[in-house]
Design brief:
The protein is an alpha/beta fold and 315 residues long. It has helices spanning 51-58, 73-76, 90-108, 121-132, 150-167, 174-185, 202-210, 220-238, 263-274, 297-311, and strands at 6-14, 20-28, 35-40, 62-67, 114-119, 139-143, 247-253, 279-285. It has a single domain, classed as Alpha/Beta hydrolase fold, catalytic domain (Rossmann fold), CATH 3.40.50.1820. An eight-stranded mixed beta sheet has the order 1-2-4-3-5-6-7-8, sandwiched between helices.
């Protein structure tokens, strides 16, 4: 498929919690989109990192919208404000932003199919959003997702609650953040940065390291919000009533320590299968956590485009 010229736009929306958040958009210039992809980014990154992928999709007929979460990217507004989140309902605020963006898209373009693409933490938000809200989407893509054991989740949540109590909600613990990143990074040698788990491509890791809006330290409150979100997602998914013909693609890197080297993707696939989802796809690519920034990203791009095209006809 020949790529067409792409235009970009940038704007802010207000969530139901009355918080302003930033949105980036990518659209084909000369014709109406055949589909829309709402991208939910991961932790400690921002919408700008999806620009190349968004141009690829937009040039082939899919409009793309991406929001920056609270404490991230242009929503944070400045590097020193990254990693911070509301003291109450932090996870819910992120969910409400996704819902506000979905509602905005649906009002502007009511008849065009919407796909949701969630990466890493964004995949949890995508899973929770899909399970919680009775909205109609055409398909769901989960990239770099993970499954956290219940005991480990409870231990981590109790530790973070203690840290919030004694250090404060907005305190960014150096040792705790380094321990968090090291838990993924320890699988790779050499380790010139804390982010070798991101990609096997040297310049991608360096770019991530040098970006002031990536790989930043998270506050105690942000860690608490994520852990509470993991627990809430698990509860919501156990009661999921969404239509079981929904196309779902679960993808992971074979060398991704976040998803236990593809094992969590297989487990997620099994969970959806046991809930009688009928259009499930599982794809394990070579590479680490960020498949859109890996050596074979063109292969990933093409696979995703083909999956989107095929899923457009499923009701």
């Amino acid at each position: 498929m020949i790529s067409q010229p792409v235009k970009e736009d940038s704007f802010y929306l207000n969530s139901p919690s009355n918080q302003k958040f930033h949105v980036s958009g990518y659209h084909q210039e000369q014709q109406e989109a055949r589909g829309i992809v709402l991208i939910i980014t991961g932790m400690a990154e921002h919408a700008g990192r999806y620009k190349q992928f968004s141009h690829f999709l937009a040039g082939r007929g899919y409009s793309v919208y991406i929001c920056d979460h609270p404490g991230q990217g242009k929503t944070a507004g400045a590097p020193e404000k990254t990693g911070l989140i509301a003291r109450q309902r932090g996870w819910e605020c992120m969910l409400e932003n996704v819902r506000a963006l979905y509602t905005h898209i649906r009002k502007e373009q009511p008849k065009i199919p919407i796909f949701i693409f969630g990466h890493s933490m964004g995949s949890l938000l995508a899973r929770h959003f899909t399970a919680l809200y009775p909205v109609y989407i055409q398909g769901l893509i989960l990239s770099g997702s993970f499954v956290m054991p219940h005991i480990g989740l409870m231990l981590a949540l109790n530790l973070v609650r203690i840290k919030v109590l004694f250090e404060g909600h907005d305190y960014k613990s150096k040792w705790f953040n380094r321990l968090f990143y090291w838990s993924f990074n320890r699988h790779f040698k050499p380790r010139p940065t804390m982010y070798e788990w991101i990609s096997s491509v040297r310049h991608e890791v360096v770019s991530y390291q040098q970006d002031p809006y990536c790989g930043f330290y998270l506050s105690n409150g942000f860690f608490k919000a994520i852990l509470k979100g993991i627990a809430a997602t698990r509860t919501a998914e156990s009661l999921i009533t969404y239509r079981k013909t929904l196309p779902v693609l679960i993808m992971s890197g074979k060398e991704d320590p976040v998803g236990r080297f593809g094992k969590d993707a297989v487990k997620l696939h099994k969970n959806y299968f046991q809930q009688n989802f009928q259009n499930l796809s599982l794809k394990i690519f070579p590479g680490r956590h960020e498949l859109l920034h890996e050596k074979y990203k063109e292969e990933v791009y093409d696979y995703l485009l083909n999956w989107l095209n095929e899923s457009l006809t499923i009701k």
